[in-house]
Amino acid sequence: MVVAYHYVAFDRGAWPGSPPEVFPSAHVPASYGWLGVQLFFMISGFVICMSCWGRGPGEFAVSRVTRLFPAYWFSVLAVALVVCLWPVADETLRSRDVAVNLTMLQSPLGVDAVDGVYWTLWVELRFYLLFALVVAGKGLTYARAVGFCVVWGFAAAVAAAVDEPLLDQVLLPEDCWYFIAGIAFYLMHRHRPNLALWLLVAGCFLVAQHGLVAAQARAEGHMGHRVPHWPTAVLLAVFFAAMAAVALGWTRRLTQRWLTTAGALTYPLYLIHERVGWLVIRRTARDVPPAVLLPALLAGMLVTAWLVHRLVERPLAGVLRRGLQRSAAEIRAGLSGPPQDRHKITPETFQAGGWNYGRDRR
Predict the structure, then answer these.
(1) Structurally, how many domains does the chain consist of?
(2) pLDDT at 1
(3) To the nearest 10°, the Cα dihedral for 185, 180, 178, 197?
(4) What is the extent of the structural domain holding 296?
(5) Quick one: which of 59, 103, 320, 362 has the fewest CB in 10 Å?
């Protein structure tokens, strides 16, 4: 959905004309592709709750780092390399900005993102940090998960009322409803549906549909054209219904291998498609008809995503996971046992090196 939105509806100036001119029919359904992000957040709430069950904070952190960073690091470096080798007048990158992007902290630090789609990852990171509070200590339980959802939703509503930027950054008052709904759907899946969980999901839907009015206005600003709002509300209802079907076990028969492959390709495809795709369009659109260029570009991006998954993401994730697991074990051992300094450092060590350690400065 997001790929279609960026290539067919988003007016980036890459095509020879505006999206309605180049894609008279296709631009209308593609104009709602930005909603794929909301679905992604809901799925994330479901998956994160599922992956945290029975795990401690260290295991949770390792699983998230190994899932997010390998493909992300590659995409940052690959996109930066393409932009440098295939420059366009308004497409420049500074090496120091690329370096900061590797931390995934460019948004809070006010650094330009290598690719515009990375903004959602900062939202994800904040959700992970909040959810880590539930995992810490006694671990994740049914009651703690429900309590977290209720408290987070109420706090986010308060944050929206007071309009304090710091609270907005921490509590995600616009996006938290999708994560909370995803968590509630997983609790239905793991245990069983009950009135409290259905009310929680219904509340998330009601607040989310109201917030989509402003979200669509922002999307229309990027697209350069307006579209009716009712399909947005319908799609949101479809997303919630689809998640409910998963939670209730109605999709258990959908175990085809292609679904697993498609799910694995979604993340690398999302990371690499936008800026590189627009560069390709800008370079070739005047010579290649859109009816040929668009399918070829989509096919090329899918192949690239598959290669990233097989050759980069999977091998690097394994190496990273093993290293982080060893590190976590050493940290736990250090917290639970006496210090075991291999090379003991004393004040005399610094004095021997010419440092005035422990002396007053004058």
Answers:
(1) 1
(2) 86
(3) 40
(4) 2-331
(5) 362
